[in-house]
Amino acid sequence: MKIVVLVKPVPDTYGDRVLSLETGLADRAASETVLDEITERALEAVIRHAEESAKSGAGEVEVVAMTMAPADSQSTLRKALAMGAASAVHIADERLAGADLVRTAEVLAAALRRAGADLIVAGNGSTDGSGGVMPSMLAELLELPAATRLETIEITADAVRGTRETDGGTMTVTAALPAVVSVTERMPDPRFPALKGIMGAKKKPLEVVALDDLSAELEGLGVALDETASARSIMVAATQRPAREAGEIITDDGTAGERIAAFLADRRLA
Amino acid sequence: MTSNEPILTLLLAAPAAADAAPALADGAAEALGAAAQLGTPVAVVVGAADALPQLAEAAASLGAARVLTAAVDPAQLGAPVADALAAAVAQEAPAAVLVPHSIEGSDAAGRLAARLRAPLAVDAVAVERDEEGIVAQHSVYGGGYEVTSAATYGPLIVTLRLGAIDHRAEAATPEVSALEVAASGRPTASVEGFESVVQASERPDLRSAKKIVSGGRGLGSKEQFALVEELADALGAAIGASRAAVDAGYVDQSLQVGQTGTSVSPDLYVAIGISGAIQHRAGMQTAKTIIAIDKDANAPIFEIADLGVVGDLFTIVPQLVQALKARK
Predict the structure, then answer these.
(1) pLDDT at residue number B211
(2) Beta strands in chain B (DSSP E)
(3) Residue B327: which pLDDT band, with cuts at 50, 70 and 90?
(4) Which of A264, B139, B151, B303 shows the smallest number of beta carbons within 10 Å?
């Protein structure tokens, strides 16, 4: 079985993240690039499944980490390899800078079709974008079922099963393979790569894929190779929100509760 | 600037156990309210066949000028809702499609955009019309930036952050018709079971609440987290929590506010015993008014609080609850 985990390099949230007010795009030089936490957890869950599967003789599971990201974010894929992925695919092409959601989905779908995965695992969202729509977009383009936002995941030879927190309750869902799933931060804590893993990662295959390498698959999806001239959505303005100013800070003198109640009443919030 | 162009809104049935009364999922009133400001609000109501009459009536009462219904099997997730929405787009040629950014709503919007290869603006906090068409406003990087996006062609598909739209449409007389949907037959995921979140009280839902009281590690224990509940009930607020409180087992993960939990933008956010790590602030700093109570004067939450109180939450919160009760 081949499982592709979609991982995402994101600006580290422990520093200030900067959006270029000229282009409306992330200023990648302004902050350190790290693997998004949820995709690290997704990777951990899949690597554990592969290890257990090998141990119990249930069959070999090949774990591939894939990302579409600028050329300089390769260190994050090395980390995925050090954690235990067998190989990595890095889709990098200058013509993809600023790609919108549909374009991103088209290119990832083409690369996934090329890789030929039985199961595609993504995070349910990332810290640099709160869309969470990519897994269902990929499922639609690849004509696969999607089980999104799984809090637990159970992978068998022909299906994937789990529970998801949805609007108003908990749902148990199952999907026949091949399928797309997204998982939440309830997945296990990611391991710290051991020195052996870090050294080993240098020898593992890391394939860099450009748009031209995906021409057959893009054509199969009915998509133009280069869409840079015909974006379907554009950012028309970007402004930095003025820093929220601290208001009044008081130290409790024994009447703070009363003081807060008065504050709420003044603002008609009580 | 308004227009008579149809604006589609996707109104899904709330996921529910089989015996529950049919209801529209969260965000329906907001989507119709936003649509009414852009053009003629047309609701696409999708749910189980026997629930559709009630759901259509609910949609009209929330302001849908017309209601298009489509029956789906609630046990099959994915393509069927996109099939219905695609049929509605083909029939109406709308200027925009507004979808609540709920779990099921965002999944459906993603599928629709991928199928139509149409522009998708996610997690918008406002929509409006300018000279060239419909634009969506987003609050990104945890509220640090505001970004405006627009379509270059085709209808703009927008998911609306729950709780972000204040405008409400006026109730309309239901004008209901059934959509003709050609099923794509694409594979779906199957629902094996559903368990409703047990509503311990009449508290509002975290994601759409106008007021939220959140507790952090400073509460110290699951038992003492009851203080948060008391204050929430005194204010008619929803309950939230920091990741630290969730990890410590004080409350369920579904209540986590922050970058990896739920992003909220209520009128009032009260943070109790929450230091305010950036991951937490990113999920709540667009709240209109923030009150923070913590014993550590250096807690970063105070940097964004409109009113910050340094002190012992175990004496301040009970006093606040008493004072609120006395005012009623």
Answers:
(1) 94
(2) 6-12, 40-47, 66-71, 76-77, 96-100, 120-130, 133-140, 145-151, 156-160, 176-178, 189-196, 211-215, 238-241, 268-272, 289-294, 307-310
(3) confident
(4) B303
Task: Specify the CATH number of the domain B6-190.
Answer: 3.40.50.620
Dig out the tokens for A62 from the structure: 């090949």
Mutate to test the interface with B, among A260, A263, A266, A268 (most CBs of B within 10 A): A260
> By percentage, how much of chain B surpasses pLDDT 90?
71
The H or E element containing residue A165 is strand A159-166
Q: Tokens standing for A167?
A: 């609007």
Burial class (CB in 10 A: 0-12, 13-18, 19+), A34: buried
Judged by CB atoms closer than 8 Å, whether chains meet at A13 and B259 is answered as yes
- Helical residues (DSSP H) of A230-270, grouped into ranges: 256-266
What length does chain B have? 328
Q: Is the ipTM of this complex over 0.90?
A: no
Question: CATH for B206-327, among 3.40.50.300, 3.30.2140.20, 3.40.830.10, 3.40.50.1220?
Answer: 3.40.50.1220
**In angstroms, rounded to a whole number, what is the distance separating the alpha carbons of residues A160 and A175?**
5
Q: Do A261 and B152 touch (CB under 8 A)?
A: no
Instruction: List chain A residues with CB under 8 Å of B78.
Output: 136, 139, 145-146
Which of B111, B305, B323 is closest, CB to CB, to A247? B305
Low-confidence ranges of chain A (pLDDT < 70): 13-18, 23-26, 28-31, 127-130, 228-231, 241-243
Phi, psi at residue B110, to the nearest 5°?
Answer: -60, -45
Indicate the length of chain A as a whole number: 270
> How many C-beta neighbours within 10 Å does residue A222 have?
9
Question: What is residue B234's three-state secondary structure?
Answer: helix
**Chain B residue with minimum CA distance to A182:** B107
Residue of B nearest to A20 (CA): B145
The predicted structure's pLDDT at residue B1:
47
